[in-house]
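Section 5.1 Outputs to date
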Amino acid sequence: MVLADSRGLVLVTGVSGFVGAAVARALVRAGYAVRGMARASSDRTNLADFPGDIVNGDLRDRAALDAALAGVGRLAHVAADYRLWAPDPEEIVRNNREGTRNVMAAALQAGVGRIVYTSSVATIAPDPAGPADETRPLDEAGAIGAYKRSKVVAERLVETMVAEHGLPAVIVNPSTPIGPGDVKPTPTGRIIVEAAKGKMPAFVDSGLNLVHVEDVARGHVLAMEKGAIGRRYILGGQDASLQAILAEVARQVDRKAPTIELPRGPLMPLAWIAENLARFTGREPMLTRDSLKMAKHHMYFSSARAEAELGYAARPWTEAVAEALDWFRAHGMIA
């Protein structure tokens, strides 16, 4: 292991979050000194025994960013508004666009030497012929829903700053992380929780690329050390149909796997009702119109570039499901 002081201090934004906390710990294991940045209101579950300094700050606060970046040599910008639905969808776009703009501008001014920007496979167009790769960038007009659009806008902003201002950023595109530390939980984490409770008796014809969150975190470290400036790297695991995912969760919790496949069309009115109820409850709905539109595509992706250029690898997605279930049990989310 290389000593931390030879690598410099790394700032990790969104350090209290699912991916951010995993990235910070992976950096520490690789020998980096880490400073984490989180909002004062953030859940602190993932920061217990955190191996570094924590500073409070909001990405909209430039003074807080400047202070957090003082003495920092490298940056992992992981923070994002990861909601698939909001009463005001444009809030998601504003948060991810302006937050990224502020962080990158502050990093340029601070003279940060190396940046890993956490994007998403949401910025990559699905390929009907098979797993999609980094050669299929999605444009804003083709993005379904505010979250995907926000990530496309933010990623293009980073690419422009690389080209026009010399921003020393490498872009990583995680697929669908699962595993321990999913505090909110994420939309996929919610599916696992509800399936484990027996509340997902049916499925639609869709699919995801599932990856252990710790493999994504290790991918960030590899990108920090080996990634080419301005280049994108998908950090994925394996492709699996939604039916297979629900069946695996059922197997691991000793429940009957769902066998009923539902068409998407008749679910749209239910999604509309769920979204309108959410405006009163304040809780993100389990079913949304955008999620049904996205489910039309099998979100399958290839990590071949990251494997070849970074030495990236991912464990089987079934192991990630097992560790996610263990963590959800330990934190009282499932029995």
